[in-house]
Amino acid sequence: MSDAVRSTGNAPNQEGRQDFQPSPPSGLLKRLLKLPAVLYRAHLGWLLTGHFLMLAHVGRKSGKEYETVVEVVKHDRERGRWIVASGWGPTAQWVQNLKAHPRTRITVGARMLEVRAVFLSPEEGKEYLADYIRRYPVVMRMILRALGYSREIVASSDLVSFAAAA
């Protein structure tokens, strides 16, 4: 596994975490990463329940609604929330859009829910990521290798929690 990070910069930010902007995927990897969205749009999202959810988010500049499929790091049933991480770092468009418009909608399987996005603290995020890595070590190694990430970069990722909007 490569410890290199494909990025335009990976200097530590104010919290001491690595800021990174991964290179966009291409070829077969790009097509594979689009497969969950294709399944959701074909009303087959129930095949992905527990692993992916479809996120509707409003553009911070355009006001236009977008849909993005993201991987679920953890479904915290006790707190009634879904935890997700951005594979493209804190500058991903959906992350920036949620910072501007945290009230949103997710589709989990065939269920659509009105939710509010909350960005987790780095400490809480590390706990969820460590749990994910323990539960799915082979998948995690494959993701790291395919995207060219180091384990340290993943451990410093921003995580977002979606819970029912009050």
Describe the protein.
The protein has helices at residues 27-41, 93-100, 122-135, 137-147, 151-155, and strands spanning 52-58, 65-76, 81-85, 103-108, 111-119, 159-164. A 6-stranded antiparallel barrel has the order 1-2-3-6-5-4. Helices cover 32% and strands 27% of the residues. The chain is built from 5 helices and 6 strands; from the N terminus they run αβββαββαααβ. It starts with 26 loop residues before the first helix and ends with a strand. With 166 residues, the protein is α+β, with helices and mostly antiparallel strands.
Short structural description:
Helices cover 32% and strands 27% of the residues. It is an alpha+beta fold. Strands 1-2-3-6-5-4 form a six-stranded antiparallel β-barrel.
Tags for this model:
alpha+beta; six-stranded antiparallel β-barrel; 5 helices; disordered N terminus
* Share in β-strands: 25-35%
Largest sheet: number of strands, sense, barrel closure: 6 strands, antiparallel, barrel
Helix/strand/pairing category: alpha+beta
Q: Report the end-to-end length measured between terminal Cα atoms.
A: 43 Å
Q: Specify the helix fraction band.
A: 25-40%
Using the CA coordinates, give the radius of gyration. 15 Å
Please provide the ordered H/E string of secondary-structure elements: HEEEHEEHHHE
Low-pLDDT residue spans: 1-13
Count of extended strands: 6
Give the rounded overall mean pLDDT. 78
Number of helices: 5
Strand order of the largest sheet: 1-2-3-6-5-4
